[in-house]
Structure of Probable nitronate monooxygenase:
Amino acid sequence: MISTYTSKLKQLQIGDLIAKIPIIQGGMGVGISRSHLAGAVAKEGGVGIISTAQIGYDEEGFENDQAGCNLKAIKKHIRKAKELACGNGLVGVNIMVALKNYKEHVQTAVAAGADVIISGAGLPMNLPEFVSRTCRTKIAPIVSSKRATQLILKMWAHRYDRTADFIVVEGPKAGGHLGFSNEQLAHMDAINFDGEIRQIIDCKKEYEQRYQKNIPVIVAGGIFDQKDISHALDLGADGVQIASRFVATEECDASEAYKEAYIHASEENIEIIQSPVGMPGRALRNKFIDRVKRAKLPVSKCYNCLEKCSPQKVPYCITKALIDAVRGDVENGLVFCGANTGRIHEITTVHHLMQELAGDLQ
């Protein structure tokens, strides 16, 4: 099985940065992918991604100073991940556009030496403003359509005279926040996402020529095994992003109860919910989701996470729900997951998972 496609796998080159294995571990917040997981993935030759969303939830003083604790934690976890990587792979961050302190998160990640910044949960129109072209950090938008890709690349070229260093194309089977409408997600089989990927690859060629640089395209959302990786590469992608499978690893930063929720999940208890971010999201059905369906959960404390959030209007506090889950209360917290989580049945290690996904490339 391995020999059927490992010859297609090539190292991922993003400007002057190189990852031996073209697999990006997707960013997962709150606290699911921090330094332990990202460092382990980078050590294997991939790209380990830290989510900055409320990353400092367990820092002393977080209850009173979320912004300060998050910036402190960004620096700490990038440093720790790079130490764990032992000079291998790349270490980066995922920063949500919807965050209240988006600019500060980007600038702190750059100053801390992040190799890459991946940005979604909204269109990162002003991301280049916070990242100097002379710095080492590479930037990538998360897109789900050719239209979004065109909007971002056109704006970056017009306003900043630069383009993306790479592009992450996230499909409808991804976990967490999704760039699709509820109606589209209800009819996923009707979405020609392969066609969308090909169009995005064609779209970025204009900017490759204009800026005389290669812009790798990374396919994300529902990537589970070698067959999925092979399919993405056949479409013309340069690599893949995988998130959910890395939750069920010893190195994942989540609690054991969180990991157990993944390996005991079935396809039937995965559903689409409405997030206070304003986007649909995919999560495991539990007592928390059942309660939210019946009535709004009053927000007793604001954690200052989202730029556009009115605590009086949102159905629940997403920060509290995600922190409760990552700490182990998986019935009364929000557990984001990908569409294929029901296929995960055991806890493994990052080393063994990367071996399974990349075959004998290593």
